[in-house]
């Protein structure tokens, strides 16, 4: 998401510097904070150390920028609250952890952005600057022309909160085949072995494992619907807009951000339980896949996300009584 935002800001004509790993691809100015992406570097045993190096790199040149935008949770709060350069942090994860109360009580003036209004609920005392939904480049995922969709899809992490077991149950009750494209993180391997693997032998289930970005358009376009039977307060749910980008309806449980992302009866159906989801699958013909794609383009494209962030930067600058945001000449 940081990459999509960075590239869209460049397209809008802004002078952007990206502090990231040295193997990053970007049209912005890249300042390498570490040679290689941490998740691809098995030799790194302390992921906090490279982040500390990066934060110090940013601190030393902070005065050169109009605005600093962080995606590192609360790590920048203490250091950058001491500087004059305005900064904002987008919070990407769950905020219902008790430990976070003390952090946000300690930094009540630090500007933060939520990725859904639902995400904010555990921390009403935080200094919320805005809610800005995620966006994808318009051509990243597109509807693929193929034969009539014939299966249901589950896409995401194989973890208890995502409830792949309920997706299997919904598909079984609806009489439709289910294809599961999911990665298994190390922390979820026991859950997969104990709770999910025994269910994969059922005739209507096909487990594909993790798929690439290049495989997603075909996988999602070929599905009658994406099942999203979550069992937690999802902060956003990126797979929902990935499906919408491909024109695929979403059948989602009414949790977390779902009512903010899905337009009930337009881009999918919002349900309360398994029976509701099974019933919603019988009404898929009432939805237009063309309109689902159009709604994605209106609400969840990367340029919309970037412009919303620019508006927030401007609000931050005005509140700090700094000069207006400088723009680089485009073209």
From TrEMBL:
One of its GO terms (molecular function) is transferase activity. InterPro entries: Glyco_trans_1, Glyco_trans_4-like_N. Residues 2-96 form the Glycosyltransferase subfamily 4-like N-terminal domain. Residues 146-274 form the Glycosyl transferase family domain. Gene3D superfamilies: Glycogen Phosphorylase B. Keywords: Transferase. The keyword Nucleotide-binding does not apply. SUPFAM superfamilies: UDP-Glycosyltransferase/glycogen phosphorylase. Pfam families: Glyco_transf_4 (PF13439), Glycos_transf_1 (PF00534). It comes from Paraburkholderia hospita. The keyword Transferase applies. This is Group 1 glycosyl transferase.
């Amino acid at each position: 998401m940081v990459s999509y935002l960075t590239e869209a800001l460049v397209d809008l004509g802004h002078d952007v510097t990206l502090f990231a790993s040295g193997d990053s691809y970007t049209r912005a100015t890249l300042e390498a904070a570490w040679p290689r992406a941490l998740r691809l570097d098995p030799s790194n045993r302390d992921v906090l150390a490279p982040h500390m190096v990066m934060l110090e790199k940013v601190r030393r040149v902070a005065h050169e920028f109009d605005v600093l935008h962080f995606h590192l949770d609360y790590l920048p709060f203490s250091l950058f609250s001491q500087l004059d350069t305005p900064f904002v942090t987008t919070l990407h994860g769950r905020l219902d952890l008790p430990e976070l109360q003390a952090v946000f009580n300690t930094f009540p003036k630090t500007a933060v952005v939520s990725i859904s209004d639902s995400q904010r609920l555990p921390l009403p005392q935080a200094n919320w600057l805005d809610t800005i939904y995620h966006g994808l480049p318009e051509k990243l995922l597109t509807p693929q022309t193929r034969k009539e969709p014939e299966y249901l899809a589950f896409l995401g992490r194989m973890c208890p909160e995502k409830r792949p077991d309920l997706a299997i149950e919904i598909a079984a009750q609806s009489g439709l085949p289910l294809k599961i494209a999911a990665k298994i993180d190390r922390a979820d391997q026991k859950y997969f072995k104990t709770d999910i693997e025994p269910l994969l032998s059922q005739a209507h289930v096909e487990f594909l494992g993790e798929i690439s970005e290049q495989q997603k358009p075909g996988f999602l376009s070929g599905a009658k619907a994406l099942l999203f039977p979550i069992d937690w307060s999802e902060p956003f749910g990126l797979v929902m807009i990935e499906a919408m980008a491909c024109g695929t309806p979403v059948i989602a449980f009414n949790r977390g951000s779902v009512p903010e992302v899905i337009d009930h009866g337009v881009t999918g159906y919002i349900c309360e339980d398994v029976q509701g989801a099974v019933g919603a699958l019988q009404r898929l013909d009432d939805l237009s896949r063309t309109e689902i794609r159009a709604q994605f383009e209106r609400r969840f494209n990367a340029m919309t996300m970037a412009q919303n962030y620019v508006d927030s930067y401007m609000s931050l600058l005005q509140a700090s009584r700094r000069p207006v945001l400088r723009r680089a000449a485009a073209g």
